[in-house]
Amino acid sequence: xxxxxxxxxxxxxxxxxxxxxxxxxxxxxxxxxxxxxxxxxxxxxxxxxxxxxxxxxxxxxxxxxxxxxxxxxxxxxxxxxxxxxxxxxxxxxxxxxxxxxxxxxxxxxxxxxxxxxxxxxxxxxxxxxxxxxxxxxxxxxxxxxxxxxxxxxxxxxxxxxxxxxxxxxxxxxxxxxxxxxxxxxxxxxxxxxxxxxxxxxxxxxxxxxxxxxxxxxxxxxxxxxxxxxxxxxxxxxxxxxxxxxxxxxxxxxxxxxxxxxxxxxxxxxxxxxxxxxxxxxxxxxxxxxxxxxxxxxxxxxxxxxxxxxxxxxxxxxxxxxxxxxxxxxxxxxxxxxxx
Amino acid sequence: xxxxxxxxxxxxxxxxxxxxxxxxxxxxxxxxxxxxxxxxxxxxxxxxxxxxxxxxxxxxxxxxxxxxxxxxxxxxxxxxxxxxxxxxxxxxxxxxxxxxxxxxxxxxxxxxxxxxxxxxxxxxxxxxxxxxxxxxxxxxxxxxxxxxxxxxxxxxxxxxxxxxxxxxxxxxxxxxxxxxxxxxxxxxxxxxxxxxxxxxxxxxxxxxxxxxxxxxxxxxxxxxxxxxxxxxxxxxxxxxxxxxxxxxxxxxxxxxxxxxxxxxxxxxxxxxxxxxxxxxxxxxxxxxxxxxxxxxxxxxxxxx
Lengths: 339, 304
Known about the structure:
Helix content of chain B: 25-40%
Structural class of chain A: alpha/beta
Distance between the termini of chain A: 50 Å
CATH topology of the largest domain in chain A: TIM Barrel
Number of helices of chain B: 9
Radius of gyration of chain B: 19 Å
Structural class of chain B: alpha/beta
Strand content of chain B: 25-35%
Number of strands of chain B: 11
Number of domains of chain A: 2
CATH architecture of the largest domain in chain B: 3-Layer(aba) Sandwich
CATH architecture of the largest domain in chain A: Alpha-Beta Barrel
Strand content of chain A: 5-15%
Largest sheet of chain A: 8 strands, parallel, barrel
Distance between the termini of chain B: 16 Å
Shape of chain B: globular
Largest interface: A-B, 30 and 35 residues
CATH class of the largest domain in chain A: Alpha Beta
Number of domains of chain B: 2
Number of strands of chain A: 8
Oligomer: heterodimer
Shape of chain A: globular
Low-confidence stretches of chain B: none
CATH superfamily of the largest domain in chain B: NAD(P)-binding Rossmann-like Domain
Mean pLDDT of chain A: 98
Strand order of the largest sheet of chain A: 1-2-3-4-5-6-7-8
CATH topology of the largest domain in chain B: Rossmann fold
């Protein structure tokens, strides 16, 4: 593979997707410290919100240690060069949250829908565009639809005003060939002015390989998280991706040693449990299940005595999508009755 | 003389057609007109085949028939944008409006919780909240009538095929309106609503989760009994309303896991979300008709 001379914008998820792995309990102090260290290392874009995006604070997904407002207003003024993004899932967050994020200095808004339901994002993408924000359409669980369908849905988001489209492997299910196929289709079908991004999870240990395939196929933006702090087996570990891209001659603008230090000295010590491809995280990738279901399934296993793997496999069979965390306890109760 | 109130349905889409099919079986409401804006629409053709009068010139086309046909109740299944005008014009003629849009001009109505009060007050415009609200607010109320609820949260998961373009273009209306009604009708101090659209095939039956955080330790027996009673109340007009799991107690959290299967009149059975709206809307009008027949309320006077 030849990525020599290409350049790519890396986008850190450890303070948003990482919130899943931390049960949304990252302290404001930790957020500021990590964000400042990443800023110093040259990370161009850092996402900060509840794991389920703006307005995600709930019984269903978990109440965070602090509000989105508190996190954003603590982090943004401290940034020297890095910009801050926020995630928003229509059906959970509203344009009111979007407005709040913009007022606090968020520059990039990422409006996320299931990969076949892009038309629920019209209200939010249109509004973000009117506010002149960098506006991303984020198609989640992209392994569940064909390349043609992904392109069709991406075009809807572009028609509402998105200037960047993400192919999001929320389940960490994709293998590199599928990434190549889908990113190539998007690159061929969307206007050249529209950027393409890829968001991976490491559940099948494909985070780095998939990101390379995405860059080769024309992705300009890659999500990952420093030390892999994210849902499931984590996101693509960014310090590893940086090292690989350095070797391949692909420009990231990030200081490798500094980002390695952020991973080792700041983020790894924050982890409540090792972020690794354990049995349940691997099941997410293998069965194609939304990565943030991991800890919920493990808690249900403890409470109801039903194996987390069995719960996750069943959730995969039922075609559950992002946000259906409430299905996990319901299903565990039903499965426990059958034992 | 029949006690049936004569009715108009505005909006011949999925909701309007399903409502018409249910109304044809009603002992209290008689459908007379279906109103649309496109003479070629499938919905108006269906209504005509089902033997009711149709009007393709919108609400204005029906106004002259209101008195002559003794129309007393209208169901608006159009959109929040046009509802206010529809309601004003028909209310002026003394027609009760049942609002199936998210406009929410009038008070929220969730039949087993507050319909009786609205009927006795002869509210001229009642709003049916949202499908998620109809499916979950009875459960929030079932807890809050036992003890104080600080926070009520509902998660509605619906099949992609059952969510029309109106809801999709304005999904924030769903979350805002439902959360507001979780507070105002459900009795929670703070409300939160989440909607998830799932494209699985075959389509999943509507499912809803309700979480309540009680102020004090929950009274398990009283809440469990109250929840089961409330489920039975909803089942009177939506037979496919089921408590799948719960109430589950975890500290001060009380959770109910529901499934709503429709009757499969016009909309398929999985679309319990649409069915519970049409059934609740019809139930609402029927209660008004019953109160009129009982002499509890009198309809606005009209020249004899």
